[in-house]
Amino acid sequence: MTPAPTLRAATEDDAQLLHRWVNDAAVRSWSFQAEPVPWDDHVAWLRRLLADDATSLAIAEVDGEPVGQVRLEPEGDALVISVSVAAEARSS
After folding, report:
1. Confidence of residue 10 (pLDDT cuts 50, 70, 90)
2. What counts of helices (H) and strands (E) characterise the chain?
3. What is the pLDDT of residues 14-52, one digit of tens each?
4. Distance in angstroms (rounded) separating the CA atoms of residues 48 and 86
5. What phi and psi, each to the nearest 5 degrees, are found at residue 3?
6. Residue 18's CB: how many other CB atoms inside 10 A?
């Protein structure tokens, strides 16, 4: 049986991991923008998110290994919920 995932708050130390995940071809194909996200844009986005008390960004881990991310971000009167799973953690 696969252990249950746990969540931990994302930090700036996760920048490379999140950048790799966001630029995964499958993730880009489901995104509003299909183009890869440049590193500098990604870092600026991550810093803005981490500084925003209204936004939550968490890394999902199984046995201490990162397997995905969950983001809750207010947008006007709505809440944007973003979930992505690392390629190596997806089943076919």
Report:
1. very high
2. 3, 4
3. 999 999 999 999 888 888 889 999 999 999 999 999 999
4. 23
5. -65, 150
6. 23
What string of DSSP letters covers 39-66?
Answer: HHHHHHHHHHHHH-TT-EEEEEEETTEE
Q: How far apart are CA 75 and CA 3, in angstroms?
A: 33
Token pair in block for residue 27: 């993730």
| Alpha-carbon span 66 to 59, nearest angstrom | 7
Alpha carbon distance 9, 30 (integer Å): 24
Distances (CA, A) of 30 to 6, 8, 24: 25, 25, 10
